[in-house]
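ok new one. same drill as before - structure tokens go in, u give me an amino acid for every spot. 91 of them this time. try not to just spam alanines like last time pls lmao
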């Protein structure tokens, strides 16, 4: 994981049983952005806005410091891993 100049680079380190993507970017690192809106991009070109998992059905969302304490990416009502075609090791 690298951080600086308004950007954090990390990778997906785990996919949970719901298909949520857990990164190696901790909540403490995310605090450098404060409450500013952020967008999460994958190495494959997909993206998700930071918000709670309660966004619209079938919409990707990312949450700072989810249940694991790390940045998590989910799709409401679906597996983010399948919907975004991402997995462990994706930057």
């Amino acid at each position: 994981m690298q951080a600086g100049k308004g950007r954090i680079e990390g990778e997906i380190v785990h996919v949970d049983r719901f298909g949520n993507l857990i990164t190696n970017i901790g909540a403490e690192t995310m605090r450098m952005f404060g409450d500013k809106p952020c967008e999460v991009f994958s190495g494959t070109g997909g993206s998700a806005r930071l918000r709670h998992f309660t966004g619209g059905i079938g919409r990707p969302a990312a949450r700072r410091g989810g249940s694991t304490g790390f940045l998590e990416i989910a799709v409401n009502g679906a597996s983010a891993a399948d919907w975004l075609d991402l997995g462990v090791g994706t930057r």
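The chain has one domain: 2-84. and btw The beta strands are 2-4, 7-9, 12-15, 21-26, 39-41, 47-50, 60-63, 70-75.
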